[in-house]
TrEMBL record:
It comes from Ichthyophthirius multifiliis (White spot disease agent). Its EC number is 3.1.3.16. This is Leucine rich repeat protein. Residues 33-68 form the Peroxisome membrane anchor protein Pex14p N-terminal domain. Residues 1-33 are annotated as: Disordered.
């Protein structure tokens, strides 16, 4: 009887270990996917690349296997671009057709000095993290005190 109990305990232990390994692998895959997305977005945000025809950008993404990953990020509703040394946000990034489901956007610790008005197209945006950039004090205070909707209103009135 005791032998059966120890066998069951051993089986449960092995099952838990397998589940942990599976979760670890999934977490690693998600982290790698996010890393690839961040690389692609950083590449596409460069001023020299923004002038490149759209078809060439898509070819680049396809060759790198990133086009599908960017689509997944847009579908999942979150995008993190922290610590990427981004200086300028291309207004096209916030095209409502491309980012309709975007709910969380992290731009922490970059060199961004201006938030484009086109970000107001992101009607589903609930979390917007912009600390650690070169934004003017008024923009920072509005975001801090009035949140996303206050920032959107400010951008619509200012630009």
């Amino acid at each position: 009887m005791g032998n059966n109990a120890s066998k069951k305990e051993e089986e449960l232990k092995k099952q838990k270990e397998l589940e942990e390994k599976k979760r670890d692998n999934e977490d690693k895959q998600k982290a790698e996917q996010q890393k690839q997305i961040d690389i692609a977005v950083r590449f596409l945000a460069q001023p020299s690349v923004q002038k490149t025809p759209e078809i060439e950008k898509r070819i680049f993404l396809r060759k790198k296997g990133l086009q599908q990953k960017l689509l997944i990020a847009k579908q999942q509703g979150f995008l993190s671009l922290r610590n990427e040394n981004i200086e300028e946000l291309n207004p096209e990034i916030f095209d409502i057709d491309k980012c309709l489901k975007l709910q969380s956007l992290t731009l922490r610790n970059n060199n961004i000095s201006l938030i484009p008005k086109s970000i107001t197209n992101l009607q589903n945006l609930k979390i917007f993290i912009i600390q650690g950039n070169n934004l003017d004090q008024e923009t920072v205070e509005i975001m801090k005190n009035k949140g996303i909707q206050g920032l959107f209103q400010y951008l619509k009135e200012t630009y």
